[in-house]
Amino acid sequence: MHEPRDPDPGTKLDEPGVAPPGWATEGDGAVGYRGVTACHAVGISYRQLDYWARTGLVVPSVRDASGSGTQRLYSFRDLVVLKVVKRLLDAGVSLQNIRKAIEALRSRGVEDLAGITLISDGTTVYECRSPEEVVDLLQGGQGVFGIAIGGAFKEIQGSLSHLPSEPATSVEPPVAADPVGDELAARRARRRAG
Questions:
Q1: d(CA 152, CA 141)
Q2: C-alpha to C-alpha distance for 58 and 50, rounded to whole angstroms
Q3: How far apart, in whole angstroms, are the C-alpha atoms of residue 121 and residue 141?
Q4: By the 8 A CB rule, do 7 and 108 touch?
Q5: 3-class secondary structure, 167
Q6: From CA 113, how far away is CA 126, in angstroms rounded?
Q7: What is the pLDDT of residue 108?
Q8: Helix 95-108 / helix 76-90 crossing angle, nearest 10 deg
Q9: Residue 110: per-residue pLDDT
Q10: How many CB atoms within 10 Å of residue 27?
Q11: Is 107 helix (H, G, I), strand (E, B) or coil?
């Protein structure tokens, strides 16, 4: 990934509960979005979301799944990153190159994602923080398409306006005390009882 001229050590993408200026929503990051909501907001399948979380591409920063029956909870920032990943995939960039780009952003830390434009030639992803960097890249014959992360930010904001969220501090609902929750479990219980 193309490095900017003077890297700015800022907030890392994977720090839970930290929202840089302009990224706070509903109480400064005090809300999270379940997987189904994330899928609707970003336009991906639940299968993709699950795969990306299990392989570490985009792990939910509010709450990760911790076993059967627990729900992942994604921050607004996570949803923006998911949207960028989807756009890069739609443009033909390989998942391997997308993974490298996301890891580079995480490792350096980014103060404000909204000021970044990602440019790709279909194989390599370049990060540009100023219009001059975009023009330099295009003049070199490198760029084919660009993704303004600020645009993804606005799209996600619009999508979330009619989708549910929940407090980031919420605790998973307790598992029912009744061990016989479905027909198969009832059969097993009867078999064990004699």
A1: 25
A2: 9
A3: 9
A4: yes
A5: strand
A6: 14
A7: 64
A8: 150
A9: 56
A10: 10
A11: helix
Strand bridging mode 145-148 / 125-128: unpaired
DSSP-based helix, strand, coil % in the chain, nearest 5: 40, 10, 45
Instruction: For residue 43, give the amino acid letter.
Output: G
31 vs 23: CA distance, rounded Å = 12
Single-letter residue type at 132 = E
3-class secondary structure, 50: helix
**What pLDDT score does 182 carry?**
66
Q: How far is CA 190 from CA 183, 185, 186, 187, in A?
A: 11, 9, 6, 5
Residue 70, both tokens: 């627990």
User: Which residue has tokens 């980014």?
Assistant: 110
Per-residue model confidence as pLDDT tens for the chain (194 residues) = 544 333 333 333 333 333 333 344 443 457 899 999 999 999 999 999 999 999 999 999 888 888 777 789 999 889 989 998 999 898 888 888 888 888 877 766 555 777 888 888 777 888 888 888 888 878 877 667 788 888 888 888 888 888 888 887 655 444 444 444 567 777 777 777 87
The amino acid at 27: G
Helix (H), strand (E) at residue 76:
helix 76-90
